[in-house]
Structure formats: C-alpha cells, structure tokens
Structure prediction request, 104 residues.
Amino acid sequence: MARGALRVLACCAVLALFVSAGSAPHDNGERLFQHAERVNAEIADDGAQASPERLADAIEAFDLVIRKARGTEWAARAHLAVGSLYAIQGQFERARDAYSLGGL
Prediction:
C-alpha cells in the first residue's frame, strides 16, 4: 500500500513540474501582449486623438511584453507595436530602432 501511495505521489510531483514549467514565456507573452493590445485599442482606432499619456501607457505595456517574454514571437510583435507608436509621435529614429530590434 505504501508503495502505491509513493507512486501516486511521484506522479503528482512530475505532473506539477510539467504544469509549472510548460511554455511559460510564450503563454505569459501572449497574455501580456493581449493586455497591451487592449491598452493600445484607443490609439489604434484614432492615433490623431491619442494623448501623450495614452501613448506612453501603450509603449510601457508593450515594453513589459519585450522584457518578460524575450525571444518569443510576442516580444517581436511588441517591438513592431512600439515602433508604430513612436512613428505616430513623429519619433522616427526611435521607431526605426524598435523595428530593428523586432527582427526586421
């Protein structure tokens, strides 16, 4: 009986490792990117009406994706979004830098 319980406990421990390890950077990156997209929604609808504060909030949200999900497709997409936000503001050198970091 103790051997069976030990086997069940070992299986649970292995399962817990798989669940916690998973593809966390990708999943986390996707979740963070979706949040950044929501922050960016107003700006995407009408960039001319975007306040500097809203633009800064959106850039900050996408920068979080870049920091937390480095090396994923979500980070690359966030670089493109940041580049677009800088371009909206006429900050073309910063936009170019963001685009180049995104792998373009």
